[in-house]
Write a structure and sequence with these properties.
Blueprint: H1 8-25, H2 27-36, H3 39-62, H4 69-98, H5 103-123, H6 128-149, H7 152-187, H8 197-210, E1 216-223, H9 226-233, H10 235-256, E2 259-264, E3 267-271, H11 278-297, E4 300-302, E5 305-307, E6 311-318, H12 325-341, E7 347-349, H13 352-368, E8 377-385, E9 391-402, E10 406-408, H14 410-420, H15 423-443, E11 450-454, H16 457-460, H17 465-475, E12 484-489, H18 495-509, E13 513-520, H19 527-532, E14 537-540, H20 542-546, H21 551-566, E15 570-574, H22 579-587, E16 592-594, H23 604-613
Helix pairs in contact: 1-3, 2-3, 3-4, 4-5, 4-6, 5-6, 5-7, 6-7, 9-10, 10-11, 13-14, 15-17
The structure holds ligand C2E and calcium ion (2 copies).
The site of ligand C2E has 24 residues, from strand 9, helix 14 and strand 13.
Length: about 625
């Protein structure tokens, strides 16, 4: 931002201060006039002061924070003219008084002129050139006046006034530098020197207003896994990385006349120049974003090591003048959020459809938070049978019947719960309900060989999970139960989690809990995973069972069962819908069957009836 134009608010306040000062002290001249000369000239002069004050007051009123930068610059130019004219009025009266013979009038003239020079040097300090011109204009007539007297003492006084002029200008320069510095601190980020959130939002706001008929793009750039770098390599390295990223962004942006800011943390934003059509703007936005992705991915050399990082970018195309800066930032944020969720290292451009999806997600997120309290979450149980249709176990499946949304699939709400962390609370509720049911069944003499509960990875890896299980087991006295409790888990992607996972599994095994590898064959399957995890059971994903007609899928299922047998795991096939599927699996000696062929997931009471008949 240009130094000279960055003090709008400061100058705005100064207008009232000078008006009050000038209107308040001006009548002093009328009083002097009535004592020493004629009142007429002074009164006329004061009327002039009033007129110029009105001009100043109008300028004061016409200013608003929401003005565009261009409008503010224009306004500031008028304020400068006003200030110059206003201060010049004092020189006018000075010249008039010293032209008089009365020495008392000379004293008054010199004193007030000095006074107004001092005032100018403070009030106009933010305007570098204006202060120089005004102070010189106010001080030089005094110097010249002394020189014209032509006496030794007057030469000395002339010299003093010159010194004073320099002192005033020096003080003004210091104030200016101080104002600049504090303004810089208020509007810039200390680490990278880029404009901060406040600066960027003001800038964006004024750009939105200025380019009503044009198109600009706004990028929100968030580094991927920056937190991991901070946590593992330390904040010093994190800071250096941020500085380097900001330099790369600035370098790329300067070529395109784009403005970069840092919103905080590892979030940067860039605003483009204006384009005439939406198509051009979109094309440029995409082109530029891809350049940034590429540039950010280049290696960083920090403290003797080379680092790599990527970024996710959300783009908002700005055209609608009805929206404000924060609205556009929100759009870019939604797009960025989507880029993160679709695998990071990507650019997503905001559109209304995206907005609907995100709003729906946010609604689910909001409603889910009170679903347990409102008794909207309940459990269903799906039987697991042996080859000869004997029920030996069941899988607990969560259901959500929302008052507003109706039935919401667990595939949807479990994912939302996982991404928001609500799964900890929800999982705890499901676990407790399942254990309660198990206890009731024991009392009812419904004996099962196993009860399977789905446990999300985030829930399992939570630091309080083992304590939770221990607490519930004690509360419901589960240790004596004959039924095996199985935790169904899906595979995790990172090896770091794998080590922790194995530790936790081994810890929980002490409570006689068994583990089942769910959805085997999908996601991040790897053979080393089932080799390393001390599991009890393996569940073949229903997508394989659904396509058993396909020879290749059939042989894959055969291999999975072979592997499972070789590793001494119980094999469960889920999603068994037809007799043909079951026969095929039975031929391969699959251990357990779960699917619509035998039963859909059902309520507790129905499951109890089923068990009594079985
Ligand atoms: P999953 O663990 O793979 O659960 C099996 C899913 O297959 C269930 O879907 C079940 O209703 C469905 N299913 C069972 N038999 C058949 C069949 O013959 N044909 C077809 N087409 N589908 C069948 P559901 O209940 O919609 O659950 C979906 C997923 O939501 C579950 O997949 C699981 O990942 C998750 N989930 C459900 N309940 C819980 C829970 O309590 N905790 C956690 N963490 N996740 C849960
Ligand atoms: Ca499952
Ligand atoms: Ca499954």
């Amino acid at each position: 931002m240009n130094d000279n134009i960055s003090f709008y608010n400061f100058m705005h306040k100064q207008i009232v201060v000078v008006i009050a000062l000038f209107l308040g002290t001006g009548p002093g001249y009328i009083l002097m006039g009535s004592l020493y000369s004629s009142v007429l000239v002074e009164t006329l002069w004061y009327l002039l002061v009033i007129c110029v004050s009105l001009w100043g007051y109008k300028l004061y009123k016409s200013y608003s924070l929401g003005m565009t930068i261009r409008a503010k610059n224009k306004w500031l130019l008028y304020v400068r003219y006003f200030m110059f004219v206003y201060f010049s009025l004092w020189t006018v009266i000075f010249l008039y008084y010293i032209s008089k013979d009365d020495i008392n009038l000379h004293y008054i003239a010199i004193a007030t002129q000095l006074g107004s020079a001092v005032v100018a040097s403070t009030i106009l300090a933010s305007q570098k050139h204006l202060v120089i011109i005004t102070v010189t204009l106010l001080m030089s007539p005094i110097t010249i006046f002394f020189l014209f007297i032509g006496e030794t003492y007057s030469y000395l006084l002339a010299f003093f006034t010159i010194v004073l002029t320099f002192v005033l200008l020096y003080a003004a320069k210091n104030t200016h530098a101080y104002l600049l510095k504090s303004r810089f601190q208020a509007y810039h980020d200390y680490l990278t020197g880029l404009g901060n959130r406040r600066y960027f939002i003001e800038y964006l706001g004024s750009s939105v207003k200025e380019n009503r008929d044009k198109y600009t793009y706004l990028l929100l750039i968030d580094l991927d896994y920056f937190k991991t770098i901070n946590d593992t390599l330390g904040h010093d390295v994190g800071d250096k990385l941020l500085i380097e990223v900001s330099q790369r962004l600035t370098e790329l942006s300067s070529v395109h006349h784009n403005v970069v800011g840092r919103l905080g943390g590892d979030e940067f934003c860039i605003l483009s120049d204006a384009f005439d059509t939406k198509e051009i703007c979109l094309a440029r936005a995409e082109e530029f974003s891809n350049k940034i992705l590429k540039k950010i991915k280049e290696a960083y050399f920090i403290e003797d090591s080379s680092l790599h990082i990527s970024a996710s970018i959300g783009v908002s195309i700005i055209n609608n003048p009805k929206l404000n800066a924060n609205d556009f930032l929100k759009e870019a944020d939604i797009a960025m959020y989507e880029a993160k969720h679709s695998g990071r290292d990507d650019v997503i451009i905001f559109n209304d459809e995206l907005c609907t999806i995100i709003e729906k997600k946010l609604q689910i997120e909001r409603l889910l938070r009170c679903a347990i309290e409102k008794n909207e979450i309940y459990l269903q149980y799906q039987p697991q049978t042996t080859c000869d249709n004997k029920i030996i176990g069941c899988e607990v499946l969560a259901r959500w019947k929302s008052a507003q949304l109706g039935m919401v699939s667990p595939e949807v709400f479990i994912e939302v719960a996982e991404s928001t962390g609500y799964i900890i609370e929800l999982g705890e509720f499901i676990l407790e309900e399942s254990i309660k049911t198990l206890k009731q069944w024991e009392i009812m003499h419904i004996s099962l060989h196993q009860l399977s509960i789905n446990i999300s990875m985030r829930q399992l890896l939570n630091k309080d999970f083992i304590a939770l299980v221990r607490g519930l087991f004690e509360k419901y006295n589960v240790a004596e139960c004959k039924t095996k409790i199985i935790f169904e888990i899906t595979e995790t992607s990172t090896s770091e989690d794998l080590k922790r996972l194995i530790t936790i599994i081994n810890e929980l095994k002490k409570y006689n809990i068994h583990f089942s590898i769910d959805d085997f064959g999908t996601g991040y399957s790897s053979l080393s995973y089932i080799r390393d995890i001390p599991a009890y059971e393996l569940k073949i994903d229903k997508s394989f069972i659904a396509e058993l007609d396909d020879k290749r899928q059939a042989s894959l299922v055969k291999s999975i069962i072979d592997i499972s047998k070789n590793l001494n795991l119980t094999t469960v096939a889920e999603g068994v819908e037809t007799q043909a599927q079951k026969d095929f699996l039975a031929n391969l000696d699959c251990d357990l069957y779960q699917g619509y062929l035998f039963s859909k997931p059902i309520l507790k009471e129905d499951f109890e009836k089923l068990m009594q008949n079985n």
